[in-house]
Each structure stands twice: as structure tokens, then as C-alpha cells.
Design a protein that fits this description.
By secondary structure, the protein is α/β, with parallel strands linked by helices. The protein is built from seven helices and twelve strands. The strands form three sheets. The chain has a six-stranded parallel beta sheet with strand order 1-12-7-4-2-3, covered by helices on one side. The protein has a four-stranded mixed beta sheet with strand order 8-5-6-9.
């Protein structure tokens, strides 16, 4: 047995016995409209919410909100992009994306977060390398809080999952708030069923 195998064997032998996870109760949901609570939470984190009636409205919104965008990568059929993406797209090839467009699976009213898996992003780097992220979200797909997220089947079955709340931001240096330091500079949630 090699040193590595002996080391791993000792670690495996020292593992505690498996035991069931405790049941976490569902806490009462706060009062108020989930969409309004989501909007308030996202706005507090620097994000923006807008309403749209159709994919045409989304295309017009992107054109008016980001008039200088040269590279638009869309993972949403019907939303125009200048760079098509597919599961074969190399993640690093999205390094110059001005606007990324994705559809969120669901949102969390408590935190103003949107949940994504590899299915929604298509290429995970779209959520981090894009300068601006536009998220289409059906308001009927809001859950009240994080406790409901962990009970969802899609949370347990995804290979990759992330909750995104607002644009990237830091205030580490001299207490000055900087957006886009480690990720997207703006996050716009478009309410669209």
C-alpha cells in the first residue's frame, strides 16, 4: 500500500457514523407581496427590477439600457444576442461579454436572490464574466425564503447551483463601494412570465 493509500485509509476509518439530518421547521412567511419584498431586497443590494410584457420588450430594454454594448450573449431563446452560446462554448470565450441574458429558475423574496444552475446559465461563466447581467424571472416562481430553496428537488439534483443577489460589490478599500469588482457591474431582473 502506498503512503497516499494508507493515509486515505486512515481518514476513511476515522469517519463518524452516518446519522440523519435534523428536520428544519418551516418558519412563518413574512407578510406582504413576494414580488414587492423581492424588489425591495434586490434594490437594497444594488440591483434593479423592471416589468416587461414580451421578449420584444426585453430586446428593447437591452438596446436602451446598454446602447454601447457590442457583445451580448443570450441563453434565452427569443432574446437577441450578438454571440450565440451553447454547452460547447468555452467558458473563457465569454471574457468580453458586455451583456449576458439568462432566465432564472426561481427567485427568493426574502433576499432578492435568483437561483441558477448549469441549465439556466448554459455556460456558468456568463454569470461572472459579463459586465451586465439581465435576468428574466417569472414572478409566479418566487419562494418566500431560503428555507424553501433547500427543500426544492431542483436544488438537490443540480450539479451546479448558485444564488445571485445583486451586482458584485466590495467596500473593502477605504470603505468605498465599488460595483463589478469581482463580477457583474449591474444586475437587472426583468419580470416576465
Amino acid at each position: 500500500m502506498t503512503t497516499r493509500e494508507a493515509f486515505l485509509s486512515k481518514i476513511r476509518a476515522a469517519q463518524p457514523a452516518s446519522r440523519p439530518r435534523p428536520d428544519v421547521p418551516l418558519f412563518p412567511s413574512p407578510e406582504g407581496d413576494p414580488k414587492a419584498r423581492f424588489t425591495a431586497a434586490l434594490t437594497a443590494m444594488g440591483g434593479t427590477c423592471v416589468d416587461a410584457e414580451s421578449l420584444g420588450d426585453v430586446n428593447a430594454l437591452i438596446a436602451s439600457r446598454f446602447p454601447d454594448a457590442k457583445v451580448i450573449a443570450s441563453a434565452v431563446p427569443g432574446v437577441d444576442g450578438t454571440r450565440p452560446i451553447s454547452s460547447d462554448t468555452l467558458p473563457a470565450s465569454l471574457h468580453d461579454v458586455d451583456v449576458g441574458v439568462v432566465r432564472g429558475r426561481f427567485g427568493v423574496a426574502e433576499t432578492g436572490s435568483v437561483w441558477f444552475s448549469e441549465r439556466e446559465y448554459v455556460v456558468n461563466s456568463i454569470g461572472y464574466l459579463s459586465q451586465h447581467l439581465v435576468v428574466l424571472l417569472d414572478p409566479a416562481l418566487l419562494v418566500d425564503g431560503l428555507q424553501q430553496v433547500y427543500r426544492r428537488d431542483d436544488f438537490g439534483s443540480a450539479r451546479y447551483a448558485v444564488l445571485v443577489t445583486g451586482p458584485s460589490a466590495t467596500a473593502d478599500i477605504e470603505g468605498v463601494l465599488i460595483r463589478g469588482a469581482q463580477g457583474v457591474r449591474s444586475l437587472t431582473v426583468v419580470w416576465l412570465a
